[in-house]
Amino acid sequence: MTNFKKLIRDEEGATAIEYGLIAALIAVALITALGSLGNNLNNTFNAVGDELSNANS
Q1: What is the spatial distance between Cα 5 and Cα 56, in angstroms, rounded to a whole number?
Q2: Strand runs (DSSP E) across the chain, as ranges?
Q3: What is the tens place of the pLDDT at every residue in 23-42?
Q4: pTM attached to this predicted model
């Protein structure tokens, strides 16, 4: 019975799970932010390329 009580009071596993969830949340936020940044950079380079093409014409 005392081992069962110790097991219930042990919070090390819960802490590890919480850290894992925080890391996953940070990863999702980074992927979303970098995806948006990539799209903006792509649009910027396309606009610059178009302007250079029009300047040569």
Answers
A1: 79
A2: none
A3: 999 999 999 999 999 999 99
A4: 0.57
